[in-house]
Amino acid sequence: MVDTSKVWIIIPALNEERYIGDVITAVQAEGYSNIVVINDGSTDNTANIAKENGAIVVSHSINRGPGAATQTGLDYVTSREGGMAITLDADGQHNPADIHKLVDALKKFKSDIIIGSRFLGENSHIPTIRRIFNLVANIVTFVLSSRWVSDSQSGMKAFSERARKLLSIETNGYEFCTEIFMECKEHNLTITEVPISVTYTKESMNKGQNFATGLQTVGKLFLQALSK
Amino acid sequence: MSLALYQIIVPCIAGVFILRAFSNFIRHRRTIRELVAVSGFWSGLAAFSIFPDALAELAQFIGIKDYINGITFFSLGLLFYAVFKILLALYRNEKQITRLVRKEALAKVKE
């Protein structure tokens, strides 16, 4: 049985006042109390609602993107000498009950990173366009990192203490998902996937990758590779 | 082999930029990948100016049929290079801003 006091939940959030309270409550109901919300320059009431619901709030003064927010969360957990870290989206698309799966897998497989895959489970409701974008992203990720996974862009991931300390996410936007795999290659970190469930709302469909951001992502990964 | 003026000027300019990139690399202002990219770009331009027939073949290959090409191609290359440099500089600035924002956020939460 995992000691939940050593598990830190990181939730990057941008203008999520509608969902953040419910997400935090649901995570707490699963027995996890170390919750860090990275308020990524929200202009709404996200930070206050998160605080009222018992989360620690780390606020970016301006919006820097999900990659930057995730690294801030990992840095915060490191500064608190925390154990494993788990990220999940603030828009309620992830089921907090799946956190146990990731925690258990981290212990069972002794992997450095566990990816919560939307495409390994019974998620037939995932829109086709999402599946296509994800496939393209998986191919780009494979080319850049030599690692093939079914869901390279998943926002639900678990990081072992070792991975948390070794990873250094430099990209700001969604390209950080692919960068993590590049970092894994560099540091010889192991990756395992477990199936998770996912619920898409209208808001969550408007976020994430589309064709234009996908092209930007590839361009930024190219710049990132050059500037290393 | 008689050389036109531009066949002397372009390699000289390329040499200056390659030396500058190398100097920046020695002073840790450029990464090895940037050095390779910059050197490759300028070496290519220099090579095309010294061996214009290769450029003519390339121009033929990509569909520019006339030989006017040299200056056009060189200008396009230069513009591409300038845009690339600006993008890289912007990207670096973005990263620095993120580091600052992160540092400030973590410092505030510790207070």
TrEMBL record, chain A:
Domain Glycosyltransferase 2-like positions: 9-124
Matching Gene3D superfamilies: Spore Coat Polysaccharide Biosynthesis Protein SpsA, Chain A
InterPro entries registered for this protein in UniProt: Glyco_trans_2-like, Glycosyltransferase_2, Nucleotide-diphossugar_trans
Pfam families in UniProt: Glycos_transf_2
The protein's name: Glycosyltransferase family 2 protein
Automatic annotation (TrEMBL), chain B:
Assigned keywords, A-Z: Membrane, Transmembrane, Transmembrane helix
Protein name as it appears in the record: DUF2304 domain-containing protein
One of the Pfam families matching this protein, by short name: DUF2304
Organism whose genome encodes this protein: Candidatus Dojkabacteria bacterium
TM ranges: 6-23, 35-55, 67-91
